[in-house]
Amino acid sequence: MLHTIRSRSTATLKGGKGTSRITLGIGDDCALLRPRAGEELAVTTDLSIEGRHFRQEWHPPESVGHRTLARGLSDLAAMGARPVAAFLSLGLPQEMTIAPEGSKAWVERFLDGLFSLAAECNVPLAGGDLAESPVAIADIVLTGAVRQGKALLRSGAQPGDGIYVTGTLGGSAAELLALEKSPRSFAGCTQAGMDHPHLYPQPRIAQGLWLRKQGLASAAMDLSDGLSTDLTHLCTESGVAAEVDAEALPLDPGATLAMALHGGEDYELLFTASASAKIPIRIAGVPVTRIGRIRKISIGQPQIVLLTKDKSEPLHPRGWQHFTG
Amino acid sequence: MLHTIRSRSTATLKGGKGTSRITLGIGDDCALLRPRAGEELAVTTDLSIEGRHFRQEWHPPESVGHRTLARGLSDLAAMGARPVAAFLSLGLPQEMTIAPEGSKAWVERFLDGLFSLAAECNVPLAGGDLAESPVAIADIVLTGAVRQGKALLRSGAQPGDGIYVTGTLGGSAAELLALEKSPRSFAGCTQAGMDHPHLYPQPRIAQGLWLRKQGLASAAMDLSDGLSTDLTHLCTESGVAAEVDAEALPLDPGATLAMALHGGEDYELLFTASASAKIPIRIAGVPVTRIGRIRKISIGQPQIVLLTKDKSEPLHPRGWQHFTG
Question: Is the ipTM above a cut-off of 0.90?
Fold first, then answer.
């Protein structure tokens, strides 16, 4: 098992284009990463747990592998960082490592999905850990490089800034609902594709890099917990308030307004830019939509307000909670 | 819960002595690490799973927290790297986050143990993830800095080199056996101390740094899986064979020879140095013992041989296996 991961990882390492600057990969106590002069290293970790983040009955294993890596890559995208290397800690019940007659083991298919996205984004797997576990868990660590002092942060939004999102919202929640109702009709979805916002989300690496290079965004983060929750985080870190125009939200064709506001796991970028910044309608092929504006915070007023045609109401964070207790 | 970890982490971040060069900690999509010029970054991940790496019935929560961090720090020590920052992904059942009347929640005590060792080793917690999980799992990521091209690797051992270990061997296995027999007598072991090689192992950071700075070690790794398994890894990576002198092994007072050879989790350093290198009998206060020598590999001969007074026998890797299947 460990051997399989190691040999596949080595292939990825060798397959890199020399941009990653990994001087030592799997097989020693640590991997060694060598940032270029003037760069700093962004690090993020994301935990995926069976029953909480995915279900064997619902998610094709390839989707679980893809989503595991996509979550970490999306955090790098949000900082405007270039992916350098991934590290995977995998805990699995024994049976998920054994191939049924004539087919692949769950873990092999999981790795197919993970390595497929890794190859697409040119990010090698440089290390990790493996252990037996009563439930499947995957912790992904992503490292990325960004020019010193130039990373996109959550804390830079200013009153008057416009609020933007990439892509469409609510598609993941809509597809998850369909998946819950009829898992069988998704069993064949073993390849990444544009039409699977939940099973195969696309981390917005190119869009994050573009925003950082242009210096247009005042703040940025990725939409993992849902717009209502994530925009609250961004406003809190920036010490500002916000207005969202309900009618401006780029709903996924299958999504309701509630899904777009609270659904989560869209892995689109949420960013702000000054009113005078010229934000294009597409960045690296993905549509960009202005959905509201940053306001000064006022004591006694809701931090986020949702504006519809005839009224204005507080928008409370109702997305993903990491711990309900 | 997340708030507790965040506020305690922030305290650690602020408490650092400016050596860590973390420009951004918990609260954004990624942490940002800025290595000094001429340094590279060592990265390691270690997964701890309830029932596999620890048991609630046996291990005081403070010990689980200490051991989680110690595993990662020991990997840094093995590279001769200076700790920069730790990242913790924690999956917990709800009940482990709730404090029983008049006492602390399991997770609070876990964090007490983890932050206590973190403070001792001056390593801040710079990020992580938290989720609900049917069993307790903790994945620790450690990052460390090391002069470019100077890290201690597993692959540099040469025929003729001496083989050395720090500290004593088998103490962890011996204490684990005592713990299994009588967990109650260890329930009060909630503080790190010298007499608990299993519950509170001491990562050999200072010894690793010393070896790297002196340039004396030709290869190094940490003893996590047991001498028989770890020395096999080192020899395989170096393309060499080895002889171990059974009578030279620095057994912990409570340990048998088998525990010293195969027990694992001693978190001492295993290193090699040329026959002419002057290795002191103590490094940073910890005894160092020469336990054997590196040989040329010979086809048809065992890779590792154990020499006793009157015979020589093959020493097969019988330590920790990451996956038995």
Answer: no
Residue of A nearest to B27 (CA): A237
pLDDT tens, position by position, A209-241:
999 999 999 999 999 999 999 999 999 999 999
User: Would you say residue A156 lies in a domain?
Assistant: no
The CATH number assigned to the domain holding B49 equals 3.30.1330.10
Does B180 share its domain with B307? yes
In whole angstroms, give the CA distance from residue B243 to residue B235: 11
Same-domain pairing of B71 and B201:
no
Hey, is B249 helix, strand or coil? coil
Split into its structural domains, chain A has a count of 2
CA distance A129 to chain B (A): 6
Which residue on chain A is closest to B150 by alpha carbon?
Answer: A32
Q: Domain residues for A23? A: 2-147
Residue ranges of alpha helices (H) inside chain B are 2-15, 61-79, 106-120, 171-181, 205-214, 227-238, 257-262
Q: Mind listing the pLDDT tens digit for each residue in B209-236?
A: 999 999 999 999 999 999 999 999 999 9
B-interface mutation test, from A34, A43, A129, A146, most B Cβ less than 10 A away? A43
CB atoms B75 and A29 under 8 Å:
yes
Task: Please give the single-letter amino acid code of residue A33.
Answer: L
Q: Are B119 and B234 contained in the same domain?
A: no
Q: Identify whether A175 is part of a domain.
A: yes
Residue type, A292: G
Residue of A nearest to B237 (CA): A27
